[in-house]
Design a protein that fits this description.
This protein is mainly β and about 725 residues long. The protein has 12 helices and 43 strands. Helix content is about 15%, strand content about 35%. Keywords: Hydrolase, Protease, Signal.
């Protein structure tokens, strides 16, 4: 999913109250791209302990694991200190997991990334009783190591096969044997599932540890994509000094063959693997598996290829037979964001599911017979996060956009609909609840305030501040910080108002006309215009005399299903219409130079910026497109078909809004930027657009980054990239 990767590029802005104009230090690009001068402080590795009274965090750059009291806020004990020489070569904890009885900790270090979420690492098990830290396995680095519910076993993936380690006997068994690179994957998703269904682990322990359910991906018939890898630098691949190597992996593009998936359950005692019956059709998706509270019943989510029909199958884990527990169809598609809100209640009688069936995303309660009991939430707003259900207080905890699409707050609600807002601070709120639902840590920020970490009781009473980023606020007081103004801009339909913000130069003079740069992403269910904190290069542009505007067109998030799904089957059309209309509106403002309206975007945003420059050639004079999709036939099957169906089903949807098919209308200045090792949006997109521009005899500019992936970083690459942006804007807009 191109949005989830790139969202950090677009959360910009931000003013502190009382910022002095025309005073203070000046920003440099080094501040944002190299030194990260305005990095916020947070809390690393927070985990609630079983008692609900204590939590743990990582400190000393991952060398210490420290336990704190929720009640007092004081450190109680250092559980593990890697500064002790007896722990040998293990120098850092990158993440960790407690065993269910908290007698052991599973840590990992030496991460080697594979794709966005996947990686191999060296896992170690720490025994509290013996104070020993031992490698999980001697057979090579592992993936996804996870304790069983009884804590005596750990399952993990290596070389596309699943292994189980028994801590009691120090033994290790292999339970699958057919794993093979680019053919069979057991217990971990293939590239497109990992990217578009946003998960990494494809196995789950039964609640009593008696079985392990897993998904098998047969990607034998998925076509291979090849990427040249050069020697490069940071890191230098010395083996490629003379001849580049070829990295090949399975990547299903829109309309092409996907992996054939199957679901299996391995019985720990009998050492027998049983396939689950998911039906005869193979051109389907299994985006999630989840055990019910009964160790004999496994829930399997099943989507059709068009992703507009969801079934939850209830499998008998012993014999593999299934029945349909839940079925839903949508005239557009089932939102991927709703797949994670399936929760089975502790009493085994009900489950909770989120759905857009009434036009907004809400929570619903069902019986284990599949009958709807009642909606838990309702109204003309979207529920975003479901944090869980407290069976003692009989309360559901969630976040929503009830007060404003630009803000998010945390609430509790009971079965009768009695609701309580738990987070009073204006802005964008997240929560991490303790296991007992007695406390939660709230992280909130807004345009005027960097992240504030506060401990609350579950009824919304503040206990203490954990981190307020006071040092950052003090540092920002030394600079000119532009003010972000929230506005609304008319959409192309003349009826809808689009949410936007505008940042004016720090020495703004209303009698002058300024160049304007629209920064946007615009992808389905994305959101860039929100009341949250961030600092990046938009501040530098405002300081240098630009007006910067961010706009969410139709098709984006937080305004209900019809708003976000109106772009169905025609990605780019309505969004570009809205962005062109917004550009015209901006050009009419007396303080904006109508000849100097530019647009910038990354990934989906790069698709938009290039399309808008061509389609809106009477509005935009300059565009920067970074890692753009230039034809949706080049992008992956799950993401693209969710919104467009297959190319053979919807040829006009794919062709009518492809920048490649609009090159004849290019009049302004276009800069294309792409990394040659982008496994997500392949450099093929930029190359094919470039060739179309050449054959249309249209001049443009292009910047290629050797061996860089979708985020284009490494060494000073990010500084070089943003310097290129600024130089290009100064040349053509300023």
């Amino acid at each position: 999913m191109i949005y989830k990767f790139i969202v950090c590029m677009f959360i910009v802005g931000f003013a502190l109250p009382g910022s002095a104009q025309n005073q203070g230090k000046k920003f440099t690009l080094n501040d944002f791209c190299l030194n990260y001068t305005f990095r916020t402080q947070g809390i690393t590795g927070l985990r609630s302990l079983n008692d609900g009274e204590h939590y743990t965090v990582l400190e000393d750059r991952g060398k210490k694991l420290v336990m704190y009291s929720y009640k007092t806020g004081k450190a109680v004990e250092t559980l593990l200190d890697l500064n002790d020489p007896k722990y040998g070569d293990v120098k850092m904890i990158q993440d960790y997991e407690f065993s269910p009885d908290e007698s052991h900790i599973l840590i990992y270090t030496n991460i080697q990334p594979i794709y966005r979420r996947s990686f191999t690492a060296d896992y170690y098990v720490f025994d509290f009783k013996n104070r020993e830290l031992k490698p999980l396995s001697e057979g090579g680095s592992q993936r996804l190591a996870t304790f069983s519910p009884v804590g005596t076993k750990i399952a993990f993936v290596r070389d596309n096969n699943i292994f189980i380690s028994d801590l009691r006997f120090g033994s290790e068994i292999q339970i699958t044997f057919d794993g093979k690179f680019n053919e069979i994957i057991n217990g971990a998703p293939d590239w497109v599932y990992e990217e578009e269904f946003a998960f990494n682990k494809a196995f789950e322990w039964a609640p009593d540890g008696s079985a392990l359910a897993f998904i098998k991906f047969n990607e034998s018939n998925v076509k291979i994509f090849h990427m040249n890898m050069f020697q490069g630098q940071y890191p230098a691949l010395k083996e490629n000094a003379t001849y580049p190597s070829n990295y090949s992996y399975k990547y299903p593009k829109a309309g092409e063959a996907n992996s054939v998936v199957s679901v299996h359950v391995y019985d720990i005692k009998d050492r027998v693997t049983t396939p689950m019956n998911i039906g005869e059709e193979t051109d389907i998706y299994i985006p999630r598996i989840k055990w019910t509270k009964d160790p004999k019943r496994l829930a399997i989510m099943k989507l059709n290829r068009f992703q507009n029909r969801l079934e939850i199958l209830l499998a008998n884990a012993r014999v593999g037979s299934t029945t349909v527990l839940y079925r839903e169809e949508n005239k557009y598609y089932i939102a991927e964001e709703n797949l994670d809100n399936l929760v089975f209640t502790e009493d085994g009688k009900n489950f909770i599911m989120s759905s857009e069936k009434n036009g907004y995303s809400h929570l619903y309660l069902y019986t284990m017979g599949g009958k709807e009991v009642q909606p838990i939430t309702s109204g003309n707003y979207d529920v975003v996060d479901f944090y869980g259900y407290d069976p003692v207080k009989k309360l559901y905890y969630y976040s929503s956009h009830e007060e404003s699409p630009l803000e998010k707050y945390v609430y509790s609600i009971d079965a009768k609909g009695k609701k309580k807002k738990l987070t009073p601070t204006k802005g964008w709120n997240e929560a991490e609840f303790s296991k007992s639902f007695k406390y939660f840590v709230n992280v909130v920020s807004n345009a005027d305030m960097p992240p504030l970490y506060t401990l609350y009781t579950a009824n919304g009473k503040a206990v203490r501040t954990l981190e307020d980023n006071a040092a950052l606020k003090e540092k920002l007081g030394e600079y000119n910080v532009a003010k972000r103004e929230y506005i609304q801009i008319p959409a192309a339909d003349g009826k809808t108002l689009l949410n936007a913000w505008m940042m004016k130069p720090t020495d703004f003079d209303a009698s002058k006309a300024y160049p304007v740069l629209i920064i946007q992403y615009s992808g389905p269910n994305s959101q860039q215009v929100r009341n949250s904190w961030g600092m990046d290069w938009a501040q530098y542009l405002a300081q240098e005399g630009y007006i910067v505007t961010c706009i969410d067109p139709r098709g984006t998030a937080a305004r209900g299903e019809e708003f976000r799904k109106c772009t169905y089957m025609q990605l780019g059309k309505i969004e570009s219409d809205d962005m062109i209309a917004a550009g015209k509106w901006l050009a009419e403002q007396p303080y904006i130079d109508a000849r100097k309206v530019g647009i910038w975007g990354w990934s989906f945003g790069g698709f938009m910026s290039s399309l808008c420059l061509m389609k809106g050639n009477d509005v935009f004079s300059t565009a920067i497109a970074v890692a753009p999709v230039t034809h949706w036939g080049f992008y992956d099957s799950i993401y693209t078909e969710r919104f467009m169906r297959r190319p053979q089903d919807n040829p006009s949807g794919y062709n009518d809004n492809s920048p490649i098919n609009w090159v004849k209308d290019l009049k302004g200045n276009l800069l294309l930027c792409h990394g040659t090792a982008d496994d997500n949006v392949h450099v093929q997109n930029a190359y094919e657009l470039a060739e179309a521009l050449v054959q249309a005899n249209k001049q443009f500019d292009m910047q290629i980054y050797t061996n860089r992936n979708h985020s284009i970083y490494g060494g000073v690459t990010r500084l070089h990239l943003y310097t290129k942006f600024v130089d290009y804007l100064n040349q053509h807009l300023k």
